[in-house]
Structure formats: C-alpha cells, structure tokens
Design goal:
The protein is mostly helical. It is built from 15 helices and 2 strands. A two-stranded antiparallel ribbon has the order 1-2. Strand 1 and strand 2 (about 180) form a beta hairpin. The protein is elongated, with a radius of gyration of 28 Å. Mean pLDDT is about 80; it is low at about 120-140 and about 170-175.
Length: about 300
Amino acid sequence: MSGSLNGVQAKFKEKNDKTVFVHCYGHCLNLVLVDSLGRQNRVTFDFFGTVQLIYNFIESSCTRHATLEKVANSANIKLKTLKSVSNTRWACRAEAVSAVKSDYGPILIAIKEIGDATKQTRHVTFNLESYFKESQRYDEDSFSNIYNETLEMCKDNNISIPDVKRRRVSSKIIYNETQYIILTKKDEMRINVYFATLGVMISSISVRFKHKTLNLIKSVGGMLKLETNNEDKKIVASAFNLDFHELESEIILLKRMDNTPKGSNQKACEEWIQWLTNYNSDRAAIFNNFFKAIK
C-alpha cells in the first residue's frame, strides 16, 4: 500500500505527483504500541511471549482445552475465551491479556493437571508465573495501582516475588541524583519496564506521526472551511505550487459568498469540486488556486 516504488502510493503519484500519502493513524498508533513492546525491553517482550505461549498450548489441543473447561466448571467460574497475540491489532493484545488475567487461577490448575499427566509442561508453568505487568499511564499513582493489583494477584496464586538485581541506573527524570540503586521490585518494574516502555512510545510517536503531513491535513481542512491563517495558506501554497497571494485573495472572495459548501471532510471536498465545476459558472477558473488545492 505505502510502497514508494510499486505500492498504491506510487501508482497514485504517477497520475498526480501532488498526491499526499496519509498512513492510517489508527494503524500508526497501533505501530507505536507494537514498537514499545519490542525486543529492546525483555520484560514486556517475554510477557507477551508467555501470553502467546499459553494460548498456543491450551488452544492447540482439544484435550487440553477440555481440561481447562473442566477445572473452570468445577469451580463454577465462567471462562473468557483465550486470544492470540497479534502484531497488527493492538486490541487483540488487550483481549489476550484480559483473558489470561480473568482465567488465571483455572489456567494454573489446568496446566498443573496436564503437566502431571503428560510430564511436558514444566517450562509453561515456570513462564506463566512471570505474570508481572500491565501499564497504561505516565504517573506514579497509576503505576502504584497496577503494581499493587499485580501483587494481590501473585499473593492469591501463591507466586513468589523475584529478588531484585542490585545495580545502578540513570534516574535524572525522577531524582536529583544522576544515579540510583534499585532496592525494591517496585522500583525495578517502574524504571526498567514502565518508564522504559513509555519512553519508547513517546519517541515512536514522533517517527510514526509525521508533523509535516499533519500540518498539511490541518491546513487543507481549514481551507475547506475558509478558516485559514497565513501559515495555513503558506503550507498549502508550498505543497501544491500555488501563488500565495492569489490563493489568499480567492479565500477572501469565497468568504463573502453565501452558497459555498460547508465542512472539512471528504464529502465537503467533493461538494466543493462540484460547486466549482458547475457547468453554468466559471468558478473553477476564477478560483483557480483554490480548485487546484482541493482537486
């Protein structure tokens, strides 16, 4: 789709070299989240690997799935459907984590029963006990809530908290000192996982969401509503090789007309083109620069 040589973007630009490719921002945001959970942070990478391992192990066998259902039914627990982790849909990751969290107790018991019967699941139970993270916001209170909830979950399932590896880390953002020795598991999770993940998200946003494209979209949207400032007109004129002063004059004239289209979406753009190319008028020639910009 976005290939600059043979993709759809390139085919469009063969017809009109002023065409601007805009990546789906929903997909861009998804890529930001995927970037933040890459191999550079082993804790989050291993965490989602474990979630996927649970799905593969339970759902790849009717017998193992039946064992999980039997355990849940005996405890009168309603199971959530386990989901596979997806690299293209962030919602799938959220659903996968939610399912494991909801079914955590029955999953542990089922894996133990399967392991006792088949002697092949020790690595699964070991990895499963590393269930140790869920983070979404950049403040101490939200992290503390997440961490305390995780501790409760570990306590309920008799999971021991791993010892802290004592080492110096940079902490300029949080403390006055340039280095800080991690003393607690909470500090380790906050600095090495929570803040590290959010840091990658912030840097990825600037890469995935290009400000130049965003500014052009904003400026064209303002032009369609005839609500532009000098900066908007400069951006549009530069992007489409238009005369700035002529474009400015055309927008002033259009503001004084009563029957112009309204809005800034795709439908409004189509209405503008239809209005300018009406066979009974010479509007496309009169407002030539405006017409070129929206065409």
